[in-house]
Write a sequence for this structure.
């Protein structure tokens, strides 16, 4: 870990809640809202989230699986996300979610008109904005946890997913 945590303190709770309470608490609320208020289907949500986790290298986020109504994606899903270009496990929306997450995280200057034509053929503008905000959250907060070495210290909060 790259920040000092007082003895007996939960690293995630301390960094996100106590070290910078104004920013950390707001960031945690945003992060949780991405999960609690999402209207995206589970497969496209998880394809984008996992692709960002893979790019960030966040160990906890790569192991996490979002659950909705008692359902999670299949165990092989993460491997399919890594192979989003060629897997036959994805429909067009799921494949586009993984592609968008990768491009957003690694090559956002080259998201071109051809890509937007494909996205708007499968996603509404509202869904594109929601997916963009979700990817931004995962990119920022997953990377923060990885960079600070918190990704090996994550424990699930009682009320939701990883921050």
């Amino acid at each position: 870990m790259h920040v000092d945590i007082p003895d007996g303190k939960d690293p995630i709770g301390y960094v996100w809640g106590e070290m910078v309470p104004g920013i950390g608490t707001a960031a945690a609320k945003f992060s949780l809202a991405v999960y609690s208020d999402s209207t995206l289907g589970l497969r496209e949500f998880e394809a984008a989230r996992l692709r960002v986790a893979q790019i960030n290298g966040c160990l906890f986020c790569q192991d996490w699986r979002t659950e909705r109504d008692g359902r999670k994606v299949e165990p092989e899903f993460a491997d399919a996300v890594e192979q989003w270009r060629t897997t036959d496990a994805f429909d067009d929306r799921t494949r586009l979610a993984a592609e968008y997450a990768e491009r957003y995280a690694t090559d956002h200057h080259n998201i071109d008109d051809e890509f937007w034509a494909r996205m708007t053929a499968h996603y509404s503008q509202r869904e594109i904005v929601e997916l963009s905000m979700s990817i931004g959250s995962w990119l920022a907060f997953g990377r923060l946890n990885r960079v600070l070495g918190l990704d090996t210290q994550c424990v699930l909060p009682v009320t939701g997913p990883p921050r």
User: Anything to note?
Assistant: Residues 156-160 have pLDDT under 50 and may be disordered. Residues 125-147 form the longest helix (23 residues).
